[in-house]
Design goal:
781 residues; alpha/beta; Rossmann fold; 3 domains; five-stranded mixed beta sheet; 19 strands; globular
Length: 781
């Protein structure tokens, strides 16, 4: 009896110990983690309240006001809506303040860290998961953008939960699909590049091999995600005239602020080179932490693969060549290894040489081939590959994308942390020092890292500036002064290069001043639309037709003086892109009016009207005849035949049509590659960097030096034209016999055909000869 009693007591103790380790320790660490990261978030938000909003924050605030039904007339609906939508819920209660979005951002951060802790616990023990979550929370790049009101951390937090729910769907219950897909959609609507988590999701679903048995639940989750998306599609339709218009920018690149758009960095290994700065920057122990983390990752990966080799060796009990250990002697395994090597070589050989989407697909296939080789190991290879694909998906995208800023590493940070903790776990398993089944090595290493990262985080927060940003300060003061200077300012057309901040503080829409290289462009742009006031952060712009009426720190306020306006002819442009630089190429000798902006007035010419104005056949002949010249590039039509007839009739009546179909080569509806337009065969073709140029000797600008035709060092492409039927073009300029500029006479007027995106080439290369050539031909009468 006593022996049995002792056995029962011993068993109970083991059960209690197991419960304590599995639940009590885990819960205690979760509470501690929540308290620590909540404190970090609060401190960081307080610093941001002092500093003021970031550039993009004002746009998200304005959108939140719009969603709350408290519009100020200014909004940027092309930005992801979910962050603003959540903020608007607080605005509805009357709590309208800049700090609201800071706290919302901080809340997402806390949720993201908690989610990462729970996610890591599916693979590691509690203390290691705790360490990983804190490592993410204390990263300098995370702390830099925490509480700013940008979408980076919020989208990453939602991505963490989406992938966590996906793993739970496979490992626990397929009902979690009803959370995984809707939360993934929320992440996408928070920041469109979060849609890239579709790649790791697809790989994990495939390698989990439960997609058939879970099919109905997966479809249910996808339907719920569409339900989440639908209200925002309706919103887009109302604001843009197209439900999917704002999403299209995702395929072209990444969202950047005005200040970051100049951060061109061609080096694809930018984020690897700068990795140490993402681990730690401040504090006396920062260098120790950096070396420790990098060492853990490298040593841990070596041990990881060593253990896999050892496991396979133990299973097969084989001594000899590696091929025997890995069972490569089997034909099926040989094929798997060959496929893996081919995909690896293709990926390495094409990385940064093909589109990011191509590299993503290649790596997805590579990840699957790795799974086929390692799936019989006693490891959670599925989760390991999920995090590897997560990291590589964003590494590929942001490395290929030419604009690189440090905050984009936030998308890679959770996956990077995973591999740090994987290394820590592997090292701890080798250095076995246990007391009562507790791995003291794991706890010791984790506590050392925790001490270092918390020390680094505190030092970083302490070193952050505790003063108001000068742009925020001066914009506030300028807005206050301006409201008193012109009480009727809400009915005036105002331009500014700091439009987000001034729109917020003035409570009305301030139009963005485009970025120009040539100072003459600022005068030209303001006069073209009769702008009433120009508020600039950059001091004197040599504005000949505007008088300075106010100054607040770095912000200057200019008022129009109509008596000094230049009298220039007006020309019409229908399409997208040329409105940003066509005036420059024409030497600012004419006002190129963008679509129906003159008809509606620049103040109310919003995105929806702008998109509707892209359709050429929506214009009447009377509208077109108000202008001597019509420019067409990257435009649209409802009926191609009607659009073509409109061009012909306009030219016959004496008008000049300047058309370049280089902007209409791609797309489902307006893609003209290998198509016919105005009896012209249009094809997308390349051009040599140094082609043989021929210029008609009868024109004045016959002595022109052309810049090399290269696009970021690669091949230059554009539209090539071949006359069809009786259509005839008189070539004015050719490159290797291909039309660069040609003139087709139609009735009293003419059509000037421009090939190979020459207008953009002249502008981007800043070639004065090319600009003068185009200017003289277009403006000749």
């Amino acid at each position: 009896m006593n022996n049995n009693s002792d056995t029962v007591i011993s068993s109970d103790k083991k059960d209690l110990s197991s419960i304590f380790k599995k639940y009590i320790v885990s819960c205690i660490l979760l509470v501690i983690l929540t308290l620590i990261v909540s404190w970090i978030a609060y401190q960081r938000v307080q610093i941001q309240i002092i500093m003021g909003p970031g550039w993009d924050t004002y746009a998200f605030l304005a959108n939140a006001l719009e969603f709350a039904g408290k519009s100020i007339g200014y909004a940027e609906f092309d930005r992801p809506p979910f962050m603003s939508f959540i903020t608007s819920l607080f605005f509805r209660s009357g709590n309208i303040h800049e700090s609201t979005i800071f706290y919302v951002d901080g809340g997402f951060f806390v949720l993201g860290v908690i989610g990462l802790y729970l996610f890591l616990k599916l693979r590691f023990d509690s203390i290691q998961s705790f360490t990983g979550a804190l490592l993410f929370a204390s990263s300098p790049v995370v702390l830099s953008w925490l509480g700013v009101g940008y979408t980076d951390l919020a989208s990453v937090a939602l991505s963490i939960w989406a992938l966590y729910f996906l793993v739970l769907s496979v490992e626990k219950s397929p009902w979690f699909y009803y959370l995984a897909f809707p939360v993934a959609m929320m992440a996408f609507l928070t920041r469109y590049t979060a849609g890239l988590i579709l790649f790791p999701m697809i790989l994990y679903i495939v390698i989990s091999r439960k997609y058939l048995s879970h099919f109905k639940k997966m479809i249910g989750g996808i339907i719920l995600s569409i339900v989440v998306l639908t209200p925002f599609l309706i919103l887009n339709q109302q604001n843009f005239g197209s439900a999917f218009s704002p999403f299209l920018g995702f395929f072209a690149g990444s969202e950047t602020s005005g200040a970051e758009s100049i951060a061109f960095e061609p080096n694809p290994f930018y984020y690897i080179i700068n990795l140490p700065s993402y681990i730690s920057q401040k504090g006396d122990l920062s260098s120790i932490l950096i070396y420790l983390i990098i060492s853990i990752v490298l040593i841990g990966i070596l041990i990881y693969f060593y253990n896999i080799f050892k496991e396979k060796l133990m299973k097969r009990k084989v001594k000899g060549h590696v091929s025997q250990i890995l069972n490569v002697t089997r034909t099926s395994t040989k094929l798997k290894v060959i496929l893996f090597l081919i995909l690896l070589l293709v990926f390495l050989g094409t990385f940064n040489r093909v589109s990011y989407i191509t590299s993503e697909i290649i790596f997805l296939l590579l990840g699957y081939s790795i799974f086929t080789l390692l799936k019989d190991t006693n490891r959670k290879i599925e989760i390991d590959l999920l995090f590897l694909t997560w990291f590589m998906t964003y590494f590929i995208f942001h490395s290929v994308f030419p604009v690189k800023v440090d905050r984009y590493f936030i998308t890679m940070a959770p996956a990077f942390v995973f591999f740090v903790i994987l290394g820590l776990s592997e090292i701890s398993s080798k250095l076995k020092l246990r007391i009562k089944n507790v791995n003291l090595t794991s706890w010791a290493l984790s506590l050392i890292i925790i001490f270092l990262i918390l020390s680094s985080a505190v030092s970083y927060l302490h070193a952050m500036p505790q003063t108001e940003d000068y742009i925020v300060r001066d914009s506030k003061l300028a807005a206050q002064w301006f409201q008193k200077y012109d009480p009727d300012y809400e009915n005036k057309l105002i331009y500014s290069d700091g439009w987000p901040a001034l729109s917020w503080y003035l409570g009305t829409e301030v139009k963005p001043m485009p970025v120009f290289k040539d100072f003459k462009a600022f005068n030209h742009e303001l006069q073209k639309y009769g702008v009433d006031y120009y508020i600039t952060l950059y001091g004197d712009r040599n504005l000949t037709a505007y008088d300075q009426v106010g100054q607040s720190g770095t912000v200057s306020i200019f008022k129009k003086n109509p008596e000094k306006f230049d009298n220039k002819s007006q020309m019409l442009y229908i399409g997208k892109n040329w409105q940003n630089y066509l005036d420059d190429v024409l030497g600012f000798r004419a006002y190129v009016i963008n679509g129906r902006s003159r008809e509606y007035g620049s103040k109310i010419y919003d995105n929806k009207i702008m998109n509707e104005a892209l359709f050429l056949d929506d214009y009447s002949m009377d509208e077109l005849k108000k202008y001597d010249t019509l420019f067409l590039y990257n435009f649209a039509w409802h009926n191609q035949s009607k659009a073509e007839n409109l061009i012909i009739d306009y030219a016959k009546s004496g008008g000049t049509v300047v058309i370049d179909l280089s902007g209409n080569l791609d797309g489902i509806y307006y893609g003209l590659d290998n198509g016919i337009f105005l009896d012209m065969l249009v094809q997308r073709k390349s051009i040599k960097a140094q082609p043989e140029i021929w210029i008609n000797p009868d024109i004045e600008s016959s002595n022109v030096s052309f810049s090399p035709f290269l696009s970021d060092g690669a091949t230059w492409y554009g539209a090539n034209y071949e006359p069809f039927r009786e259509n005839k073009i008189e070539n004015i300029v050719t490159a290797d016999g291909k039309t660069l500029i040609g003139i087709q006479k139609v009735g009293k007027g003419r059509i000037i055909w421009i090939g190979y995106n020459l207008v953009w080439h002249a502008f981007i290369t800043e070639n004065k000869d090319e600009k003068k050539l185009i200017e003289d031909l277009v403006l000749a009468r």
